[in-house]
Amino acid sequence: MSNDATLAFTVSDMTCGHCAKTITNAVLASYPSAKIDIDLASKRVSIANAGDRAAVASVIEAEGYSPADA
Known about the structure:
It comes from Shinella zoogloeoides. By secondary structure, the protein is α+β, with helices and mostly antiparallel strands. Helices cover 34% and strands 27% of the residues. The chain has a single domain (6-69), classed as Alpha-Beta Plaits (2-Layer Sandwich), CATH 3.30.70.100.
């Protein structure tokens, strides 16, 4: 499922550029047309053109991170 809504998560255990890249790659693997914006300083991940919130959160969780609604 794809939509135009932007999903926002706070990922408190995202601590470095490697973490950001891992999350980006995982989301793009499931949602190739997703637009991802990561602000490492605020630990915020914004994703447009992806699935529903629960499905995207599951993708991030599968990489070992803990996304929370932002």
